[in-house]
Design brief:
The protein is of the alpha+beta class. The two termini are about 40 Å apart.
C-alpha cells in the first residue's frame, strides 16, 4: 500500500492555526500602516499645494497673458484682433501652450479686451470728492452672464451691426458696488473722452458670482470702485473715483476710438485639483517656460512680439517648497522610528516561532533535511500566510486613503511582507546551519560577543555619531540626507547595544549579594534572569527605539503647542483683547460702560484696563513713542500670568518725595536711549508728563513693539487715562458673547482664534497627525515586542512555577518571582529609554527648528520654536513599560496557579 505524504504547508497551518492567524493579523496591520504612510504624505502635500495657491490673491495665482491688437497695423486688422472670435481662438491656443502637469481651470479663467489707460467721464452727476471728474476703465470680458447675476435691467449687447473704431455708442453693465458708490443705475449714460467721444449706455446692474475669483479680482476695479489720489506721491493730493464699465465682447473694437489703449488679455486660473506636490519641479518648469522660456517665444510668435506673461505662481511654489523641505525631515524622523520598531517586532515574531520549533527543526536536520530545503519549506509556509495578509493591508490603505500614488505604498507593503516572510526562514537557517541535537547553555551572564558583533556595534556607533553631528551642523533640512532621519533611531540602537554589554557584569555583581539575603526568591530571580537565552537585543532595541521616538515625537508636538501658545499670547497680550479700532492703529477711548458689560460676560475672570497713546511724542517732538497707562496691581498680575515682562506693582508706583516724576517700565531699546534720567513726554491730549525708567523688560502684554513705555495711569490726565484697550483673562471665553457686548465700536481679538490661525497649511496639520500616529504606532509595537519577549519564556516559567509549587512555593512568592525575573529586562529598558530620549533631544535640538511646523508662513516668528525635552513624553512610556511588565508577569503567575501542574511536569518535556 502506497502512503501519500501530507503536504508540509497545509499540515503546519492546521497544526498551529492560532499562530498563523496572529501572524496574518500582524502582517496585515503593519502593511496597512506602512502603505498608508506615503499615501497620507501625498494627500497632505497635494492639499498643502492647493491651499497655497488658493490662499494668494488671484493676481498672483493666475497666468496673466496680455498682447496689443497689433501696433502700427491697419485699423480693420486691429478691429478683427479684438473681436470675440479671435480672442476666444487665441485663448484655446494659449491653453494648449501650457505644459503639463500645469492645468488650466476654464470655468474660473477669464479673457477679453480692456483699456490700459483710464478714461475721464464728463458727467457732473458722478461723485467728485475733491472736484476731479471720475475716471473709468472699459473692459469687454467673456461670458459675463456666466460670471454674474443680473440684479436690474438687462445685460449689454451690441446692436446696429458690427462695432468698429468709429462707433459712438455702446452698451455696458456695472456691478452693484460700482452702481451704489458712483450713483449709477440702469439707463444712465456716461460719456468718456477720447479721439471721438464715446457714449456708454448702462443697461443693467450685475452681482459677481465669485467676487474673489480670477474673473473679478485680478482687476478689482471692474468689481469695486476705488478712491485714488492724483499721481505725485503727495499724501494730501486731490482724490477722484475710479470705476469699471463692462462692455459686451462684440463691442471691444469701439475701444480703438478712445485714448484707452485697448489690450487683449487672458487670465488663466490653475486647476488646483490637478496640482500634486510630487510634480512641484515640473510645475515650476512649466511656469518658467511661460514666463521667460520656450512658452514665451511661442506666445509672442502667435500673439504679438510685445506679448507679456506675468504670474506669481513661481513665488508660491518656492514658498511651498521651502515649507515642505522644512517639515519633511521631522516627519521622516517619526516614520523611521516607528518603522524600526515595527521591523523589530516582525523579526521577533520570526525568532519566537523559530525558538518554539527549535526541537522540531533540529530533529529534521538530524534526519537528513537539507538547510536549503528546510529554509524553502519555512519560507513557503510563512508566505502562504503573509502574502495575502500584506495584500489585504495594502488594499485597506488604498481604499481608506484614495487619490495618492500606488507605487510607494506598494513598495512599503511589499517590504513589510518580505520581512515577515524571511524572518522565520533566516532565523532558522542561522540557528541550524550545523546539525546538532543539543546547543548547550547560552546564558546572558556567560555569553561572550564575537568579533563580528563587535565590529557591527562599532559601525553602528560611528553612523549614529555621524548623523548627530551632521544634524547639529546643518539642521533638519532636506540636504542633510536620510542619515539624519535615522539619528534618533541610531541613538536608541547604540543604547540597546550598550545595555546588552553592561547587563552580564551587572547580573553577576547582583547575584552574589542576593544569595546572602533571607529567602530564595530574590536570588532565584537573578539566577533565572542570568540564564535566559541571549535574545535581549531585539526587545531592548524595540523598547529603546520606541522610547526615543516617543520622547522625540512627544517633545516635537509639545514644542509646537507651546510655540503656538506663546505666539498667540504675544499677539493678543491676554486671553482676549478689546480695543477701539479706527485706522491702522487702534485709537479712541472705549465706551464708559463697556468694562462693566465685559466683566460679566461668560468665562471672564479678570479685566485689565489700559490707556494707550500711540502718538505720544518725546522731547524733540519728532518721534512717536507709544505709552501705556495701567493700574500697576492688575497689570502686574496679568504680566505674571502671561509671562510677558513680569514686575512688582510697587516698581510703577510713584513714591513719596519723587515730585512729578512717574516711574516707567520701558523696553530695552527705549531704556538704552533715555537711560535712568527723567525725560518729558507729550501725550496725545497735549499734556506733558515726566518719566524715569525704573524697570526694563523686552515684552509687555499691552504693546507688541520693540519700543514702549508703561506707566501708572493715575499719574496721567483724566483724558489721557481713559481706557482704549481691555485685556481679558479667563477660560472658555465666548467670542460671540464678547462681540455682542462690545458692539460695533470695538474689535474683539481672542487668543484661541489667533492660535488657530497659525495652522494655514495642510502640510502643518498633516505633519502633526503623522507624528501623533507614528508615536502611537511605535508605542503599540514596543508593547507588542515586550509581550513577545515575555511570551517566549512563558512555557519555561510555567514549568518552573509548577516544579517550585511542589516544593512549597506559595502563590504570592510565585508572583514575586516572575515579577523580579522580568525586572532585569524592564528596568534597564526604562532607565536607558529615559536617558536615551533625553540625550537624543539634547543632542539633536540645536539642529531642529520647529517654527515652520508650529507657525503659519505668514505669521511673524517673534520667538523661535525650539525642541526641548517634554517631561511627560519621557515619563509616560517609562511608567507604561513597568506597568505592562509587572502586569504580564503577575498575570502569568495567576494563570499558572489556576492550571493543574500535571501538564507542566510531564517527563521528558524540554522546558
Amino acid at each position: 500500500m502506497n502512503r501519500v505524504p501530507a503536504p508540509w504547508t497545509r499540515t503546519r497551518l492546521r497544526a498551529a492555526p492560532g499562530a498563523a492567524g496572529a501572524l496574518a493579523l500582524l502582517v496585515a496591520l503593519t502593511a496597512c500602516l506602512a502603505a498608508a504612510f506615503p499615501r497620507a504624505l501625498d494627500r497632505y502635500a497635494d492639499a498643502g499645494l492647493s491651499r497655497a495657491v488658493e490662499q494668494v490673491h488671484p493676481g498672483q495665482s493666475s497666468l496673466q497673458v496680455s498682447a496689443d491688437p497689433g501696433l502700427g497695423g491697419k485699423t480693420a486688422d486691429q478691429e478683427d484682433a479684438l473681436r470675440p472670435e479671435s480672442v476666444t481662438g487665441y485663448y484655446e491656443s494659449i491653453v494648449d501652450t501650457v505644459e503639463s502637469p500645469l492645468a488650466v481651470d476654464g470655468s474660473r479663467s477669464a479673457y477679453g479686451v480692456r483699456s490700459t489707460s483710464d478714461l475721464i467721464a464728463a458727467e457732473e452727476w458722478l461723485p467728485r470728492p475733491d472736484g476731479l471728474p471720475a475716471q473709468m476703465v472699459l473692459a469687454a470680458p467673456n461670458d459675463l452672464a456666466g460670471h454674474a447675476r443680473l440684479r436690474s435691467g438687462r445685460l449689454p449687447r451690441a446692436t446696429g451691426g458690427p462695432v468698429t473704431a468709429s462707433t459712438g455708442r455702446v452698451e455696458a453693465a456695472v456691478t452693484e458696488e460700482t452702481a451704489r458708490t458712483l450713483r449709477i443705475e440702469a439707463g444712465s449714460v456716461i460719456h468718456v473722452h477720447g479721439r471721438d467721444e464715446l457714449a456708454v449706455h448702462v443697461t443693467g446692474v450685475v452681482a459677481p458670482r465669485e467676487p474673489d475669483g480670477v474673473y473679478w479680482s485680478v482687476w478689482s476695479v471692474l468689481r469695486t470702485p476705488s478712491l485714488v489720489r492724483t499721481p505725485g506721491g503727495d499724501p494730501n493730493a486731490p482724490r477722484f473715483w475710479r470705476g469699471g464699465l463692462l462692455l459686451p465682447p462684440e463691442a471691444a473694437p469701439a475701444l480703438l476710438g478712445t485714448d484707452g489703449g485697448p489690450m487683449r488679455y487672458w487670465h488663466l486660473a490653475p486647476d488646483t485639483e490637478a496640482l500634486h506636490g510630487r510634480d512641484l519641479d515640473r510645475l515650476s518648469a512649466s511656469v518658467a517656460s511661460l514666463e521667460s522660456g520656450p512658452g514665451t517665444e511661442q506666445l509672442r510668435s502667435m500673439l504679438s512680439p510685445f506679448a507679456e506673461v506675468e504670474t506669481g505662481l513661481d513665488a508660491v511654489f518656492t514658498t511651498y517648497d521651502r515649507l515642505r523641505g522644512d517639515i519633511a525631515p521631522l516627519v521622516s524622523v517619526a516614520a523611521s522610528g516607528a518603522g524600526t520598531v515595527a521591523a523589530v517586532v516582525l523579526l521577533m515574531t520570526g525568532g519566537l516561532a523559530a525558538g518554539r520549533r527549535r526541537t522540531e527543526l533540529a530533529l529534521l536536520r538530524a534526519r537528513g533535511a537539507s538547510l536549503r530545503g528546510l529554509t524553502g519549506r519555512l519560507l513557503a509556509e510563512t508566505a502562504v500566510v503573509a502574502l495575502p495578509a500584506g495584500a489585504l493591508g495594502l488594499a485597506v490603505a488604498v481604499l481608506v486613503l484614495p487619490g495618492a500614488r500606488l507605487l510607494p505604498a506598494l513598495g512599503a507593503a511589499g517590504a513589510v511582507t518580505a520581512v515577515a516572510c524571511l524572518a522565520l526562514p533566516l532565523r532558522a537557517a542561522a540557528a541550524h546551519r550545523a546539525v546538532r541535537v543539543h546547543d548547550g547553555r547560552r546564558d546572558v551572564a556567560t555569553a561572550r560577543p564575537s568579533r563580528r558583533r563587535t565590529v557591527a556595534e562599532l559601525t553602528a556607533v560611528a553612523l549614529a555619531l555621524g548623523a548627530v553631528e551632521l544634524l547639529r551642523r546643518r539642521g533638519a533640512t532636506g540636504g542633510s540626507g536620510d542619515l539624519v532621519s535615522l539619528a534618533p533611531v541610531l541613538v536608541g540602537v547604540i543604547a540597546a547595544l550598550v545595555l546588552v554589554r553592561l547587563q552580564p557584569p551587572v547580573l553577576r555583581g547582583l547575584a552574589r549579594p542576593a544569595g546572602r539575603l533571607r529567602g530564595a526568591v530574590g536570588h532565584l530571580a537573578l539566577a533565572r534572569a542570568g540564564r535566559t537565552s541571549v535574545s535581549t537585543v531585539l526587545p531592548l532595541l524595540a523598547l529603546l527605539t520606541a522610547f526615543t521616538t516617543a520622547a522625540f515625537g512627544g517633545s516635537v508636538l509639545a514644542g509646537v503647542s507651546d510655540a503656538r501658545d506663546r505666539a498667540a499670547v504675544l499677539a493678543v497680550g491676554a486671553d482676549a483683547r478689546v480695543e477701539a479700532a479706527s485706522g491702522p492703529l487702534p485709537s479712541g477711548p472705549l465706551p464708559s460702560g463697556l468694562p462693566g458689560r465685559l466683566a460679566h460676560a461668560p468665562g471672564v475672570r479678570g479685566l485689565t484696563e489700559v490707556s494707550i497713546a500711540y502718538q505720544a511724542k518725546t522731547s524733540d517732538g519728532r518721534q512717536s513713542l507709544p505709552v501705556a497707562g495701567v493700574d500697576p496691581e492688575a497689570y502686574a498680575a496679568l504680566a505674571a500670568r502671561t509671562g510677558l515682562g513680569g514686575f512688582a506693582p510697587d516698581e510703577l508706583t510713584r513714591r513719596d518725595g519723587s515730585g512729578d516724576v512717574l516711574p516707567a517700565l520701558a523696553s530695552s531699546m527705549v531704556a538704552e536711549r533715555f537711560g535712568t534720567q527723567p525725560f518729558p513726554v507729550r501725550m496725545e491730549d497735549g499734556t506733558f508728563v515726566t518719566l524715569r525708567i525704573t524697570v526694563v523688560r523686552d515684552r509687555t502684554p499691552a504693546l507688541f513693539r520693540d519700543d514702549f513705555l508703561v506707566v501708572d495711569r493715575a499719574g496721567l490726565s483724566a483724558r489721557a487715562a481713559r481706557p482704549t484697550v481691555l485685556l481679558l483673562t479667563g477660560g472658555g471665553l465666548d467670542a460671540d458673547a464678547l462681540r455682542r457686548a462690545a458692539g460695533d465700536g470695538a474689535s474683539v481679538h481672542l487668543r484661541s482664534e489667533e492660535r488657530a490661525r497659525y495652522v494655514d497649511s495642510p502640510l502643518q496639520s498633516g505633519a502633526e497627525r503623522v507624528y501623533t500616529a507614528a508615536v502611537a504606532a511605535g508605542a503599540g509595537y514596543a508593547a507588542l515586542a515586550l509581550l513577545l519577549s515575555l511570551a517566549r519564556a512563558a512555557p519555561e516559567r510555567a514549568a518552573l512555577l509548577a516544579r517550585l509549587r511542589t516544593m512549597g512555593l506559595t502563590p504570592a512568592q510565585g508572583r514575586r518571582l516572575l515579577v523580579l525575573e522580568s525586572l532585569p529586562q524592564a528596568v534597564p529598558a526604562v532607565a536607558g529609554g529615559v536617558l536615551t530620549g533625553w540625550a537624543a533631544i539634547r543632542l539633536l535640538s540645536p539642529g531642529i527648528d520647529l517654527t515652520t511646523i508650529a507657525l503659519a508662513a505668514t505669521s511673524p516668528s517673534t520667538v523661535p520654536a525650539q525642541l526641548r525635552a517634554d517631561p511627560w513624553s519621557l515619563a509616560v512610556p517609562a511608567v507604561a513599560v513597568l506597568v505592562l511588565t509587572v502586569g504580564v508577569a503577575a498575570g502569568q503567575a495567576w494563570w499558572s496557579g489556576r492550571r493543574g501542574a500535571v501538564t507542566e511536569l510531564r517527563a521528558g518535556d524540554a522546558r
